[in-house]
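Entry for the shared binder. Reason: the reviewer on the internal report wants the predicted structure included alongside the sequence.
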Amino acid sequence: MKVLFVVRRITIAGEPMGIMQLSAIARKRGWESRVAVSPEALKAVADEAPELVAVSCMSGDYSDLKETIAQLRRSHPELPILLGGPHTTFVPDAVDDVEADGVCIGEGEEAFAEVLERLERGGRNFSGILNIQTKEQRTAIRPLITDLDALPFIDRDLVYQNSDWKHFKLRSFYTSRGCPYSCAYCFNHGYRRVYHGLGPTYRKRSVDNVIAEILEVTAKYPTEYIRFSDDVFIVRHDEWIEEFADKYSKRVGIPFYCLIKSDIITPELVAVLKKAGCASVCMSIETANEELRSQVLSRKGQNNEQMLRSFDLFNAAGINIYTNSMIGLPHSTIQDELDTIELYLKAKPKCGLFTICVPYPGTELFSYCVKNGLVRADLTHEEINRTSGDYSMLDSFSAKEKEVQKNISLLGTVAVTFPWLKNLITKRLIYLPNNKLFFLIYFLVKNYQFSKYIVPIRYSASDYLRLGFAALKNDAVMFITGKGKNT
Protein backbone atom coordinates (compact mmCIF):
# COMPACT_ATOMS: atom_id res chain seq x y z
CA MET A 1 0.00 0.00 0.00
CA LYS A 2 1.11 3.54 -0.66
CA VAL A 3 0.68 6.98 0.93
CA LEU A 4 1.30 10.21 -0.95
CA PHE A 5 2.25 13.19 1.20
CA VAL A 6 1.43 16.61 -0.22
CA VAL A 7 3.02 19.90 0.90
CA ARG A 8 2.85 23.35 -0.61
CA ARG A 9 6.54 23.37 -1.45
CA ILE A 10 9.87 21.88 -0.43
CA THR A 11 12.73 24.35 -0.04
CA ILE A 12 16.24 24.31 1.34
CA ALA A 13 14.97 26.57 4.14
CA GLY A 14 14.17 23.41 6.10
CA GLU A 15 13.14 19.80 5.68
CA PRO A 16 9.43 19.01 6.21
CA MET A 17 10.18 16.98 9.33
CA GLY A 18 6.53 16.36 10.22
CA ILE A 19 5.75 14.31 7.13
CA MET A 20 9.17 12.67 7.32
CA GLN A 21 8.24 11.42 10.79
CA LEU A 22 4.89 10.11 9.54
CA SER A 23 6.58 8.48 6.58
CA ALA A 24 8.86 6.58 8.97
CA ILE A 25 5.76 5.25 10.72
CA ALA A 26 4.16 4.27 7.41
CA ARG A 27 7.26 2.47 6.15
CA LYS A 28 7.60 0.65 9.46
CA ARG A 29 4.14 -0.79 8.72
CA GLY A 30 5.21 -1.84 5.23
CA TRP A 31 3.72 1.09 3.32
CA GLU A 32 5.50 2.91 0.49
CA SER A 33 5.79 6.68 0.83
CA ARG A 34 6.09 9.43 -1.75
CA VAL A 35 5.91 13.22 -1.50
CA ALA A 36 4.63 15.82 -3.96
CA VAL A 37 4.33 19.60 -3.91
CA SER A 38 0.83 20.96 -4.45
CA PRO A 39 1.18 21.98 -8.13
CA GLU A 40 2.19 18.40 -8.95
CA ALA A 41 -0.31 16.62 -6.71
CA LEU A 42 -2.78 15.62 -9.44
CA LYS A 43 -0.05 14.11 -11.59
CA ALA A 44 1.50 12.37 -8.60
CA VAL A 45 -1.81 10.73 -7.70
CA ALA A 46 -2.21 9.55 -11.28
CA ASP A 47 1.33 8.17 -11.36
CA GLU A 48 1.46 6.64 -7.88
CA ALA A 49 -2.15 5.49 -7.33
CA PRO A 50 -1.92 5.87 -3.53
CA GLU A 51 -4.38 4.42 -1.03
CA LEU A 52 -4.11 7.65 1.01
CA VAL A 53 -3.21 11.28 0.41
CA ALA A 54 -1.91 13.03 3.53
CA VAL A 55 -1.66 16.83 3.24
CA SER A 56 0.50 18.81 5.68
CA CYS A 57 -0.53 22.43 6.15
CA MET A 58 0.98 25.48 7.80
CA SER A 59 -1.43 28.40 8.22
CA GLY A 60 0.37 30.28 5.47
CA ASP A 61 -0.23 27.36 3.10
CA TYR A 62 -3.93 26.91 3.77
CA SER A 63 -5.43 28.71 0.76
CA ASP A 64 -3.29 26.89 -1.80
CA LEU A 65 -3.65 23.46 -0.20
CA LYS A 66 -7.41 23.87 0.24
CA GLU A 67 -7.66 24.33 -3.53
CA THR A 68 -5.34 21.36 -4.14
CA ILE A 69 -7.59 19.16 -2.01
CA ALA A 70 -10.64 20.37 -3.96
CA GLN A 71 -8.94 19.46 -7.25
CA LEU A 72 -8.03 16.01 -5.94
CA ARG A 73 -11.57 15.43 -4.74
CA ARG A 74 -13.05 16.38 -8.11
CA SER A 75 -10.66 14.09 -9.95
CA HIS A 76 -10.67 11.21 -7.45
CA PRO A 77 -13.92 11.31 -5.46
CA GLU A 78 -13.24 8.02 -3.64
CA LEU A 79 -9.61 8.72 -2.69
CA PRO A 80 -9.11 9.04 1.11
CA ILE A 81 -7.62 12.45 1.94
CA LEU A 82 -6.35 13.47 5.37
CA LEU A 83 -5.33 17.03 6.27
CA GLY A 84 -2.93 17.69 9.13
CA GLY A 85 -0.15 19.97 10.29
CA PRO A 86 -0.01 23.05 12.52
CA HIS A 87 -2.95 24.81 10.87
CA THR A 88 -5.56 22.18 11.69
CA THR A 89 -4.40 22.00 15.30
CA PHE A 90 -5.43 25.60 15.84
CA VAL A 91 -8.28 25.67 13.33
CA PRO A 92 -9.92 22.24 13.77
CA ASP A 93 -13.10 23.54 12.14
CA ALA A 94 -11.17 23.42 8.87
CA VAL A 95 -12.75 19.98 8.53
CA ASP A 96 -15.99 21.76 7.59
CA ASP A 97 -14.20 23.99 5.10
CA VAL A 98 -12.16 21.51 3.05
CA GLU A 99 -13.05 18.44 1.01
CA ALA A 100 -10.91 16.08 3.07
CA ASP A 101 -12.18 12.97 4.87
CA GLY A 102 -10.75 14.24 8.14
CA VAL A 103 -8.28 16.60 9.76
CA CYS A 104 -5.71 15.68 12.39
CA ILE A 105 -5.18 17.98 15.34
CA GLY A 106 -2.17 17.89 17.63
CA GLU A 107 0.52 15.24 17.42
CA GLY A 108 -0.30 12.91 14.59
CA GLU A 109 1.92 9.85 14.93
CA GLU A 110 -0.42 7.56 16.85
CA ALA A 111 -3.53 8.80 15.03
CA PHE A 112 -1.81 8.33 11.67
CA ALA A 113 -0.90 4.74 12.54
CA GLU A 114 -4.59 4.07 13.32
CA VAL A 115 -5.63 5.63 10.00
CA LEU A 116 -3.25 3.30 8.16
CA GLU A 117 -4.54 0.32 10.12
CA ARG A 118 -8.14 1.16 9.24
CA LEU A 119 -7.27 1.46 5.55
CA GLU A 120 -5.43 -1.88 5.72
CA ARG A 121 -8.67 -3.46 6.96
CA GLY A 122 -10.60 -1.96 4.06
CA GLY A 123 -12.17 0.94 5.92
CA ARG A 124 -12.37 4.47 4.58
CA ASN A 125 -14.19 6.49 7.25
CA PHE A 126 -11.86 7.90 9.92
CA SER A 127 -14.50 8.78 12.53
CA GLY A 128 -13.76 7.66 16.07
CA ILE A 129 -9.97 7.90 15.86
CA LEU A 130 -8.62 10.16 18.60
CA ASN A 131 -7.15 13.42 17.23
CA ILE A 132 -9.01 12.94 13.93
CA GLN A 133 -11.94 15.26 13.29
CA THR A 134 -14.46 14.40 10.59
CA LYS A 135 -17.58 16.15 9.37
CA GLU A 136 -19.61 13.51 11.20
CA GLN A 137 -17.71 13.30 14.49
CA ARG A 138 -15.35 15.30 16.69
CA THR A 139 -13.05 13.22 18.87
CA ALA A 140 -10.98 13.91 21.97
CA ILE A 141 -7.23 14.54 22.00
CA ARG A 142 -4.97 11.71 23.14
CA PRO A 143 -2.15 12.45 25.62
CA LEU A 144 1.13 13.80 24.32
CA ILE A 145 3.94 11.41 23.47
CA THR A 146 6.26 11.68 26.47
CA ASP A 147 8.97 9.25 25.32
CA LEU A 148 10.31 10.81 22.12
CA ASP A 149 13.02 8.13 21.96
CA ALA A 150 10.29 5.60 21.16
CA LEU A 151 9.59 7.24 17.80
CA PRO A 152 11.42 5.97 14.71
CA PHE A 153 14.01 8.26 13.18
CA ILE A 154 12.47 10.47 10.50
CA ASP A 155 12.46 9.14 6.94
CA ARG A 156 15.12 11.19 5.13
CA ASP A 157 14.77 9.29 1.85
CA LEU A 158 11.26 10.68 1.40
CA VAL A 159 12.71 14.12 0.68
CA TYR A 160 16.40 13.67 0.04
CA GLN A 161 16.08 11.34 -2.93
CA ASN A 162 14.13 13.71 -5.19
CA SER A 163 14.94 17.28 -4.19
CA ASP A 164 17.77 19.77 -3.80
CA TRP A 165 18.31 18.39 -0.31
CA LYS A 166 20.44 15.58 -1.70
CA HIS A 167 23.00 18.24 -2.73
CA PHE A 168 22.68 20.25 0.48
CA LYS A 169 25.28 19.20 3.06
CA LEU A 170 23.23 20.60 5.93
CA ARG A 171 21.12 18.09 7.92
CA SER A 172 18.40 19.07 10.38
CA PHE A 173 17.57 17.26 13.62
CA TYR A 174 15.21 17.92 16.49
CA THR A 175 16.13 17.21 20.11
CA SER A 176 12.86 18.34 21.69
CA ARG A 177 9.20 19.08 21.11
CA GLY A 178 7.26 22.06 22.31
CA CYS A 179 8.38 25.34 23.81
CA PRO A 180 8.07 26.53 27.42
CA TYR A 181 7.76 30.19 26.44
CA SER A 182 4.62 32.21 25.71
CA CYS A 183 5.54 34.68 22.97
CA ALA A 184 2.39 36.43 21.75
CA TYR A 185 3.09 35.88 18.05
CA CYS A 186 3.44 32.11 18.46
CA PHE A 187 0.80 29.39 18.76
CA ASN A 188 2.13 28.04 22.06
CA HIS A 189 -0.73 29.57 24.03
CA GLY A 190 -3.20 27.68 21.87
CA TYR A 191 -1.13 24.51 21.92
CA ARG A 192 -1.12 24.44 25.69
CA ARG A 193 -4.88 24.96 25.74
CA VAL A 194 -5.36 22.03 23.36
CA TYR A 195 -3.19 19.77 25.54
CA HIS A 196 -4.14 21.04 28.98
CA GLY A 197 -3.89 18.11 31.40
CA LEU A 198 -2.57 15.75 28.72
CA GLY A 199 1.13 15.83 29.52
CA PRO A 200 4.09 18.22 29.41
CA THR A 201 4.19 20.16 26.17
CA TYR A 202 7.99 20.57 26.34
CA ARG A 203 9.81 17.23 26.07
CA LYS A 204 13.44 16.32 25.32
CA ARG A 205 15.01 13.32 23.59
CA SER A 206 17.89 11.59 25.32
CA VAL A 207 21.38 12.59 24.22
CA ASP A 208 22.18 9.03 23.13
CA ASN A 209 19.06 8.84 20.96
CA VAL A 210 19.89 12.13 19.21
CA ILE A 211 23.49 11.12 18.57
CA ALA A 212 22.48 7.69 17.28
CA GLU A 213 20.30 9.35 14.64
CA ILE A 214 23.01 11.82 13.68
CA LEU A 215 25.56 9.04 13.21
CA GLU A 216 23.11 7.02 11.12
CA VAL A 217 22.29 9.97 8.84
CA THR A 218 25.85 11.25 8.43
CA ALA A 219 27.04 7.77 7.50
CA LYS A 220 24.59 7.80 4.58
CA TYR A 221 24.50 11.44 3.48
CA PRO A 222 27.45 13.86 3.10
CA THR A 223 27.17 16.31 5.99
CA GLU A 224 29.28 19.37 6.77
CA TYR A 225 26.92 21.22 9.08
CA ILE A 226 24.07 20.32 11.40
CA ARG A 227 21.04 22.42 12.29
CA PHE A 228 19.03 21.72 15.41
CA SER A 229 15.54 22.84 14.43
CA ASP A 230 14.00 22.95 17.92
CA ASP A 231 11.91 26.02 18.74
CA VAL A 232 14.58 26.53 21.40
CA PHE A 233 17.58 24.22 21.66
CA ILE A 234 17.96 24.48 25.44
CA VAL A 235 16.07 26.39 28.11
CA ARG A 236 18.69 26.28 30.85
CA HIS A 237 22.25 25.21 31.64
CA ASP A 238 21.55 21.70 32.89
CA GLU A 239 22.81 18.11 32.88
CA TRP A 240 21.43 17.47 29.38
CA ILE A 241 23.61 20.09 27.68
CA GLU A 242 26.65 19.02 29.69
CA GLU A 243 26.18 15.40 28.59
CA PHE A 244 25.47 16.50 25.02
CA ALA A 245 28.61 18.66 24.84
CA ASP A 246 30.78 15.78 26.01
CA LYS A 247 29.31 13.06 23.77
CA TYR A 248 28.67 15.16 20.66
CA SER A 249 32.19 16.58 20.58
CA LYS A 250 33.73 13.12 20.89
CA ARG A 251 31.39 11.05 18.67
CA VAL A 252 30.13 13.52 16.04
CA GLY A 253 32.38 16.58 15.86
CA ILE A 254 30.42 18.35 13.12
CA PRO A 255 29.78 22.09 13.66
CA PHE A 256 26.16 22.95 14.41
CA TYR A 257 23.63 25.77 14.51
CA CYS A 258 20.77 26.18 16.97
CA LEU A 259 18.13 28.60 18.25
CA ILE A 260 18.46 30.04 21.73
CA LYS A 261 17.04 32.86 23.88
CA SER A 262 19.32 35.62 25.08
CA ASP A 263 18.05 35.70 28.67
CA ILE A 264 19.58 32.32 29.59
CA ILE A 265 23.05 33.09 28.29
CA THR A 266 25.96 32.98 30.75
CA PRO A 267 29.72 32.73 30.18
CA GLU A 268 29.58 29.12 31.44
CA LEU A 269 26.82 28.15 29.00
CA VAL A 270 28.62 29.72 26.05
CA ALA A 271 31.73 27.75 26.99
CA VAL A 272 29.75 24.50 27.04
CA LEU A 273 28.17 25.23 23.65
CA LYS A 274 31.60 26.07 22.22
CA LYS A 275 32.99 22.81 23.59
CA ALA A 276 30.14 20.87 21.99
CA GLY A 277 30.84 22.31 18.55
CA CYS A 278 28.29 25.10 18.31
CA ALA A 279 29.54 27.41 15.55
CA SER A 280 26.48 29.60 15.02
CA VAL A 281 23.23 30.49 16.77
CA CYS A 282 19.98 32.27 16.07
CA MET A 283 19.13 34.72 18.85
CA SER A 284 16.17 37.01 18.15
CA ILE A 285 15.95 40.68 19.07
CA GLU A 286 12.38 41.27 17.75
CA THR A 287 12.48 45.03 18.42
CA ALA A 288 14.62 47.63 20.16
CA ASN A 289 11.50 49.00 21.87
CA GLU A 290 11.56 47.23 25.24
CA GLU A 291 7.94 48.09 26.00
CA LEU A 292 6.70 46.57 22.75
CA ARG A 293 8.86 43.50 23.28
CA SER A 294 7.53 42.98 26.80
CA GLN A 295 3.92 44.16 26.62
CA VAL A 296 2.92 43.35 23.03
CA LEU A 297 5.13 40.33 22.28
CA SER A 298 5.17 38.91 25.84
CA ARG A 299 8.94 38.40 25.67
CA LYS A 300 9.46 39.46 29.26
CA GLY A 301 12.82 39.47 31.01
CA GLN A 302 14.71 40.61 27.92
CA ASN A 303 16.06 44.15 28.02
CA ASN A 304 18.47 45.64 25.52
CA GLU A 305 21.40 45.78 27.93
CA GLN A 306 21.05 42.10 28.80
CA MET A 307 20.70 41.21 25.11
CA LEU A 308 23.89 43.04 24.21
CA ARG A 309 25.78 41.18 26.94
CA SER A 310 24.62 37.87 25.46
CA PHE A 311 25.66 38.92 21.95
CA ASP A 312 29.04 40.02 23.29
CA LEU A 313 29.59 36.62 24.93
CA PHE A 314 28.92 34.72 21.71
CA ASN A 315 30.97 37.12 19.61
CA ALA A 316 33.90 36.84 22.01
CA ALA A 317 33.71 33.04 21.78
CA GLY A 318 33.77 33.12 17.99
CA ILE A 319 30.22 31.77 17.67
CA ASN A 320 28.51 33.58 14.80
CA ILE A 321 25.04 35.03 15.37
CA TYR A 322 22.01 35.31 13.14
CA THR A 323 19.30 37.56 14.54
CA ASN A 324 15.89 38.74 13.41
CA SER A 325 13.16 41.18 14.33
CA MET A 326 9.64 42.10 13.28
CA ILE A 327 8.76 45.25 11.39
CA GLY A 328 5.34 46.84 11.84
CA LEU A 329 4.46 45.68 15.34
CA PRO A 330 1.26 47.12 16.85
CA HIS A 331 1.87 50.74 17.95
CA SER A 332 5.38 50.77 16.48
CA THR A 333 6.76 53.71 14.55
CA ILE A 334 9.33 54.06 11.80
CA GLN A 335 11.67 55.41 14.48
CA ASP A 336 11.28 52.11 16.37
CA GLU A 337 12.45 50.27 13.25
CA LEU A 338 15.43 52.60 12.87
CA ASP A 339 16.27 52.11 16.55
CA THR A 340 16.25 48.36 15.96
CA ILE A 341 18.82 48.77 13.20
CA GLU A 342 20.97 50.74 15.66
CA LEU A 343 20.63 47.95 18.24
CA TYR A 344 21.72 45.43 15.60
CA LEU A 345 24.83 47.50 14.93
CA LYS A 346 25.71 47.41 18.63
CA ALA A 347 25.02 43.66 18.86
CA LYS A 348 27.21 42.89 15.82
CA PRO A 349 25.46 39.79 14.41
CA LYS A 350 26.93 38.26 11.29
CA CYS A 351 23.49 38.18 9.66
CA GLY A 352 20.50 40.33 10.64
CA LEU A 353 17.05 39.98 9.07
CA PHE A 354 13.79 41.90 9.39
CA THR A 355 10.33 40.52 8.61
CA ILE A 356 6.89 42.11 8.43
CA CYS A 357 4.75 41.21 11.46
CA VAL A 358 1.89 38.80 10.68
CA PRO A 359 -0.69 38.37 13.49
CA TYR A 360 -2.16 34.94 12.73
CA PRO A 361 -5.61 34.05 14.11
CA GLY A 362 -5.20 31.78 17.11
CA THR A 363 -2.29 33.74 18.55
CA GLU A 364 -2.38 36.19 21.44
CA LEU A 365 -0.99 38.82 19.09
CA PHE A 366 -4.01 38.49 16.81
CA SER A 367 -6.36 38.85 19.78
CA TYR A 368 -4.43 41.94 20.86
CA CYS A 369 -4.72 43.45 17.37
CA VAL A 370 -8.47 42.79 17.25
CA LYS A 371 -9.00 44.25 20.73
CA ASN A 372 -7.13 47.41 19.74
CA GLY A 373 -8.86 47.80 16.39
CA LEU A 374 -5.77 47.07 14.32
CA VAL A 375 -7.25 44.21 12.28
CA ARG A 376 -10.76 42.91 11.66
CA ALA A 377 -11.92 40.10 13.92
CA ASP A 378 -13.19 38.18 10.87
CA LEU A 379 -9.89 38.40 9.00
CA THR A 380 -9.54 35.13 7.11
CA HIS A 381 -6.47 33.03 6.45
CA GLU A 382 -7.01 33.59 2.73
CA GLU A 383 -6.70 37.36 3.25
CA ILE A 384 -3.64 36.89 5.45
CA ASN A 385 -1.98 34.61 2.94
CA ARG A 386 -2.42 37.22 0.20
CA THR A 387 -0.36 39.74 2.19
CA SER A 388 1.79 37.58 4.48
CA GLY A 389 5.47 38.47 4.19
CA ASP A 390 4.76 41.49 1.99
CA TYR A 391 3.14 44.66 3.36
CA SER A 392 1.69 45.06 6.85
CA MET A 393 -1.98 44.16 7.24
CA LEU A 394 -2.47 46.39 10.29
CA ASP A 395 -5.01 49.18 9.67
CA SER A 396 -3.08 51.64 11.85
CA PHE A 397 -0.34 52.25 9.29
CA SER A 398 -0.62 54.51 6.26
CA ALA A 399 0.24 53.29 2.78
CA LYS A 400 3.46 55.31 2.92
CA GLU A 401 4.43 53.80 6.28
CA LYS A 402 3.85 50.31 4.90
CA GLU A 403 6.09 51.13 1.93
CA VAL A 404 8.87 52.30 4.26
CA GLN A 405 8.43 49.20 6.44
CA LYS A 406 8.80 46.99 3.37
CA ASN A 407 11.99 48.78 2.35
CA ILE A 408 13.43 48.44 5.88
CA SER A 409 12.67 44.70 5.80
CA LEU A 410 14.95 44.47 2.75
CA LEU A 411 17.56 47.18 3.21
CA GLY A 412 17.90 46.85 6.98
CA THR A 413 19.92 43.70 6.35
CA VAL A 414 22.24 45.69 4.08
CA ALA A 415 22.68 48.45 6.66
CA VAL A 416 23.62 45.94 9.35
CA THR A 417 26.13 44.21 7.06
CA PHE A 418 27.65 47.44 5.74
CA PRO A 419 27.33 50.09 8.50
CA TRP A 420 28.91 52.73 6.25
CA LEU A 421 25.74 52.55 4.13
CA LYS A 422 23.43 53.06 7.10
CA ASN A 423 22.87 56.80 6.69
CA LEU A 424 22.19 56.51 2.97
CA ILE A 425 19.71 53.71 3.61
CA THR A 426 17.92 55.10 6.66
CA LYS A 427 17.76 58.73 5.50
CA ARG A 428 17.06 58.30 1.79
CA LEU A 429 16.59 54.86 0.26
CA ILE A 430 13.85 53.53 2.55
CA TYR A 431 11.63 56.46 1.52
CA LEU A 432 11.84 55.59 -2.19
CA PRO A 433 9.22 53.38 -3.92
CA ASN A 434 9.84 49.70 -3.29
CA ASN A 435 11.45 47.97 -6.28
CA LYS A 436 13.06 44.76 -7.51
CA LEU A 437 16.58 46.19 -7.14
CA PHE A 438 16.10 46.45 -3.37
CA PHE A 439 15.02 42.81 -3.31
CA LEU A 440 18.01 41.69 -5.38
CA ILE A 441 20.47 43.54 -3.13
CA TYR A 442 18.82 42.04 -0.06
CA PHE A 443 18.88 38.54 -1.56
CA LEU A 444 22.58 38.69 -2.40
CA VAL A 445 23.65 40.16 0.94
CA LYS A 446 21.48 37.85 3.05
CA ASN A 447 22.53 34.66 1.32
CA TYR A 448 26.21 35.61 1.24
CA GLN A 449 26.25 36.35 4.98
CA PHE A 450 24.23 33.25 5.82
CA SER A 451 26.34 30.91 3.71
CA LYS A 452 29.65 32.42 4.85
CA TYR A 453 29.00 32.73 8.58
CA ILE A 454 25.83 30.96 9.75
CA VAL A 455 25.85 27.75 7.71
CA PRO A 456 29.23 27.67 5.94
CA ILE A 457 29.33 24.68 3.60
CA ARG A 458 31.62 23.91 0.68
CA TYR A 459 30.02 23.13 -2.68
CA SER A 460 30.99 22.48 -6.27
CA ALA A 461 30.27 25.24 -8.79
CA SER A 462 27.26 23.33 -10.15
CA ASP A 463 25.86 22.85 -6.66
CA TYR A 464 26.26 26.57 -5.95
CA LEU A 465 24.26 27.40 -9.06
CA ARG A 466 21.57 24.82 -8.30
CA LEU A 467 21.14 25.79 -4.66
CA GLY A 468 21.44 29.50 -5.41
CA PHE A 469 18.59 29.23 -7.88
CA ALA A 470 16.52 27.29 -5.37
CA ALA A 471 17.10 29.99 -2.73
CA LEU A 472 16.25 32.76 -5.20
CA LYS A 473 13.03 31.01 -6.19
CA ASN A 474 12.06 30.63 -2.53
CA ASP A 475 12.77 34.28 -1.62
CA ALA A 476 11.31 35.80 -4.77
CA VAL A 477 8.02 33.93 -5.05
CA MET A 478 5.89 36.67 -3.46
CA PHE A 479 7.91 39.68 -4.62
CA ILE A 480 8.15 38.79 -8.30
CA THR A 481 4.50 37.79 -8.62
CA GLY A 482 3.44 41.11 -7.10
CA LYS A 483 1.41 39.39 -4.42
CA GLY A 484 -0.02 41.64 -1.72
CA LYS A 485 0.11 45.03 -3.43
CA ASN A 486 0.18 47.95 -1.03
CA THR A 487 -3.40 49.15 -1.46
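Summary line for the report: The radius of gyration is 22 Å.
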